[in-house]
Amino acid sequence: MRVNDREISALALAFQRGDQGSLKKLVAILTRPLLARAYRYTGDWDWARDLTQETWVKVNDRIQRYDPSKSFRAWLFTVHRNGCLDHLRRSWLRREVSADVDAIDRMPAPLGSGNPEIELERGEFHRRLVEALSTLSESQRLIFVRVAMEQEEQLEVARDLGISPTTVRTTLHFARRKLAQKLRSMGEIF
Question: What confidence tens digit (pLDDT) does each residue in 158-186 have?
């Protein structure tokens, strides 16, 4: 659907005045180019989706700051570009993710129960879990390990990583879904 800047700015003004339907239309029209731009910054579709979602959350929170006399598209892409650049500036995140990937490979097998059959099953599940974790993106793996395995609070993880709690929840959801699919394909039943 091709929409010109004047129509987009009109939708933005309607959204600024409280029309939630206009936001839905803006999301439908502009998400694809935002995703493409975020992918060019990150080279990772999971991060691109997360950054695009974060942009829409920011737009929702900051719509009152938008100046209707200017191009909404330009304002939106500035918000998005700044989010992408902030992501790239967090180089410490990549180092932390790499450290967590190594930690997954070194995860100890579960403690024994004394029953050889149960220990064999646990060991096999552990091996499959480590293999399934390797199929996640770095961001999914980091967030899954910290929240689901290490039992950290989602808000604490979001604060530590400098991302929104919504991004943590979304990333965790997709990581769990991907892990479940992978484990099902490996013969684990969920």
Answer: 887 888 999 999 999 999 999 888 888 87
What is d(CA 92, CA 161) in angstroms, rounded to the nearest whole number? 9
Burial tier of 169 (Cβ tally within 10 Å: 0-12, 13-18, 19+):
middle
pTM of the predicted model, to two decimals? 0.50
Out of 2.60.40.3780, 3.40.50.720, 1.10.1740.10, 1.20.1250.20, select the CATH number for domain 5-89.
1.10.1740.10
Kindly report, as residue ranges, where domains of CATH 1.10.1740.10 are found in the chain. Answer: 5-89
Task: With beta carbons less than 8 A apart as the criterion, state whether 126 and 110 touch.
Answer: yes
Instruction: Tell me how far apart the alpha carbons of residues 23 and 76 are, in angstroms, rounded to a whole number.
Output: 12
As its CATH architecture, domain 91-185 has Orthogonal Bundle (1.10)
Task: Specify the amino acid at residue 96.
Answer: E
Give per-residue pLDDT as tens, 40-68: 777 778 888 999 999 999 999 999 999 99
